[in-house]
Amino acid sequence: MYDVIIIGGGVVGCGIARELMRHKARVLLLEKTNDICNGQSKANTAIIHGGYDAKPGTLKAKFNVLGNALFDSLHEELDVPVQWNTSLVVSFRQEDHCKLEKLLQQGKDNGVRGELRIIDRQELRRREPNIGPEAKEALLVGAGGIVCPYELTIAYAENAATNGAEFIRNAEVSKVSSLPDGRWQVDSSAGTFVARAVVNAAGTYSDVFNNMVSARKVHIRPRRGEYYILDKQYAGAFHAAMFQLPTSMGKGTLIAPTVDGTILVGPTAQDIDDKEDKRTTAQGLATALQQGRLTWPNLPTRGFITTFSGLRATGNTGDFVLGEPEDAPLFFNCCAVESPGLTSAPAIAKWTAEQISMRLELPENPGFNPRRKGIAKFRDMDDSQRAAAITKNGDYGRVVCRCETVTEAEIRESIRRPVGARDVDGVKRRTRAGMGRCQAGFCTPRTVQILAEELGISPLEVTKFGGNSRLLADWLFTEEYHG
Amino acid sequence: MDRVDILIIGGGPAGLAAAIGAYEAGARDILVLDREQELGGILKQCIHNGFGLHTFQEELTGPEYAHRFIKKVRAYGIPCQGETMVLSISPKKVVTCVSHDHGLQHIQAKAVLLCMGCRERPRGSLATPGERCPGVYTAGTAQRFTNLEGLMPGKEVVILGSGDIGLIMARRMTLLGAKVHACVELMPYSSGLKRNIVQCLDDYGIPLLLSHTVVDIQGRDHVTGVTVAKVDTNLQPIPGTEQTFPCDTLLLSVGLIPENELSKMAGVTLYPGTSGALVDETLMTSVPGIFACGNVLHVHDLVDFVSEEAETAGKNAWAYVQGELTQAERIIVETGFGVGALVPQLVSREPLQPVRLMFRPRNVYRNARIIVEAGEQRLYEKKAMILAPGEMVNVVLPVEKLSALKNAESLTVRIEVSQA
Amino acid sequence: MKYELTCINCPMGCRITADYDGKEVTNIEGYTCRRGLLYAQSEITDPTRMLTALMALEGTHVPLPVKTDRPIRKALLPKALEQIKSTRAKRPVRLGAVVIENVCNSGANVIATAERL
Questions:
Q1: Domain check: are C61 and C104 in the same one?
Q2: Which of A421, B229, C99, C108 is the most buried (most CB within 10 A)?
Q3: B235–chain A Cβ distance below 8 A for any pair
Q4: Across the interface, do B133 and A396 touch by the CB < 8 Å criterion?
């Protein structure tokens, strides 16, 4: 019997697991796929939004601003890369000045912290020399930043697990039902579990679980966004996250630096019906490129290293759906958490965990350790640190991914850690192996070998992202495997 | 800090030949670094024949070709340190590398030879739409899996790109029991050798779809099919021409990129035409004492020429160490009509050896002439029935032709197509 | 019988057509040089190929690369390949070591092209 079962291993679910461990509680997180951080949390723009965008009074506005304020402590406690590079919302038409003014006022009303002002063409050009000639002026958001969304999610999960939360992956929840005694039964592909409270953090599927238990229906229609990633040789081309002021022509495309030095171009916005349809499309990519060129006319298309798409859990209410529905006590929604979901996640996690602990009267956990140290990254070390790392563990001397300088030691550790990697994409998110310019051409064979060794499986069983996503079809010769 | 006269980065065909060249010129304090355990580089996995015809008048496979050089390197007692990754090179030629066995090393070299080879362009750089599922590999990665690890990536294959690696893998996968449905080429011509088209595709009845590209990749968990469409003269897909091949594997052979990350750190100037270093006829880069050769300098189609070039670079590196390579006044070699990927881009007015110019035609030209001239003065002229981007052109200029050019500012290499 | 082939000697890739009655090649057309003519004649009357392949090696999944030590008749390729696939080499194997003698009576040996010690 668990105190709390969390459905969904994204940033919200893992964040809640971690925040709940501040209390003495038995917590179980069920994740449908082979790994945590496999949905919205892995495929987004990786921006810490200032909080000017949402309508005042909405949950989005409230949790955005609250969440934004938590990232410094997350960086400090969980060793998550965070950079405060500011955001700029650029207008491309003189007549849009009033829209910028409106956004500025909205930001003030929402309580956006830090610098918030409109900068003129000259200052804009001085800050961002690569900006296109049509750019007129911009709203500068000092509280805008960037974060590594995988590292945040994984850090939450690792810290939660270290403090005693349980994680089961490949556990697809099929049914949530209330028992006569008020507890909840959760049926999943990994078994049936009972808990006093349930958290619905199921991303694009969070409407399904809400609708199972509550008469207050929510409908989520995924909104797909397509992106390009530019090689890190262009790092510094833009310093701030470059938004385009939404116009009647659309919401525009971002040029967003990442904490890893690459640059994201995107996303597009297309409403789709299939919650698994993460394809990129010729049209979507063309749109992202065309819009991106408004901000960055010399966008170097030869520098693209990959493309991807992500699904936002766009709900029909226009706002997040959080907390207990009246007709489903001790069922806690984190439903329709779309943009600014990543920024809001730390605040949603804290608030939800507090709600649960109050309702369940969970005692404090004096043994809670809020700290988590990330995998020591070889690429960030100086020479003496590198020499010391190799002396201590020779596997630091074996560079597996040369584009991102990721060593065998890091890859092995990413698999051995709590809630560790189980597939090639999991290794990639935890170490960046395969995320560089050759896109895993060189390191895939070695990563497959290491995964097979660490997990005690045949290379044929190694997958890209679980399920049937095996990388290899067969051995050439049927000899029993000798490693 | 360790010190060495000549440090060679990479133990593939270029690195091995460079080591031999330097040794035979007289160098004795040489070190070869390679990231893999075994020497030979990419040749280890190129088990098909066709190597060495030019050098040995024999058709060798990749491992056999490499073995001849490895044997020589061993016989000369040239030290080679494997499983070592070079992290940086400073303009003062201090190389920082790491390995399991030796930890972090700084090595001060008098001359450095860049022999890092090239890498394959991945799917992402093409922005091919569709699912991002497993089953999409570069041809070289698939080749490593089959030939070195005994693993089969898939059984039903489509190949995008008709470069030689793609063609070779079409045949290999067929011989290993897979069904190769088609080889798809964006351009109206293949960049692969005719011999490979005949012996890798035609022999096995594999269709070559010229002026086609992949417009969609299907499959949630694994590739289940790819959609191919014809392209127009602007290389844009033509709607309505799509056809879908059910398959579990898409192999990419869509270009090679010289691996110059280390060169950049050393401050070496790169030449956009080759994506390799800017060099003179001695193969010295813009940084004195740093030389480049093989596929890191420009992508070759024959390994024989890699070896030749690298041997020259090795010899010159030793000449540099001995102070015999004086920085004479140099003139620029410019690319005229039809000429791309030219090496070298600078030539000494008083070269010590005949100068070899290499380039790739930008297109297919029939009944053409290759011309090298300085203003009005023609240094070289040769007829060619056909020139194609897939086959590198070699031009050798005698020393006296160059030393006769007292006042010329530059040379131009160009192709002239007669109006037939 | 009508033959149609592509010359492999240079990037021209001449399309050559010819007739062959099992004894003599006639009406060779489409070649532009002597090499093309010779290629057409031998490719039609006695096409040969070098075969390179992977052979199983006892005790490991790592395959042994092998080749025929001379070109063999094209028609023999499938059979030769079958024989290579059904053979398992034993370590140590030296480069150049014969792993199958006179494969399919072709007169060619299959030899190892790499060392597996």
A1: yes
A2: A421
A3: no
A4: no
Dmax (CA) for chain B in angstroms is 66
Residues B303, B207 share a domain: no
Query: Which residue does chain A place closest to C55, by CA atoms?
Result: A477
Q: Are B224 and B245 in contact (CB under 8 A)?
A: no
CB spacing of B152 vs A302 below 8 angstroms: no
DSSP B231: B
Secondary structure (3-state) at B222: coil
User: How confident is the model over A294-332, as pLDDT tens digits?
Assistant: 999 999 998 999 999 999 999 999 999 999 999 999 999
pLDDT in tens, B193-231: 889 999 999 999 999 999 999 999 999 999 999 999 999
Residues 6+ apart with CB under 8 A from B234: none
Domains and CATH numbers, chain A: 2-40+150-219+317-360 (3.50.50.60), 86-143+221-312 (3.30.9.10), 378-461 (1.10.10)
Does some domain include residue C117? Answer: no
- A49 labelled catalytic: yes
CB contact under 8 A, A479 and C60: yes
By residue range, what is the domain housing residue B372?
A: 328-420
> Is ipTM strictly over 0.90?
yes
What does the angle CA A390 – CA A395 – CA A398 come to, to the nearest 5 degrees? 95
Which residues in chain B have their CB less than 8 angstroms from residue A464's CB? 133-134
CB B135, CB B263: distance < 8 Å = no
pLDDT, tens digit, for every residue of B140-175?
A: 999 999 999 999 999 999 999 999 999 999 999 999
**Pair (B153, B46) in one structural domain:** no
- Closest residue, chain A, to B154 (C-alpha): A473
What pTM value is reported for the model?
0.95
CATH of the domain at B22: 3.50.50.60
Distance from CA of C7 to the nearest CA of A (A): 33
**C57 in the same domain as C41:** no
Give chain B positions within 8 Å (CB) of C5: 198
My answer on whether B217 and B270 are in the same domain is no
- Structural domain ending residue among the three candidates B195, B229, B254: B254
The one-letter amino acid code at B142 reads A
Order across the sheet with B249-252: list the strands: B136-138, B249-252, B156-160, B179-184, B208-209
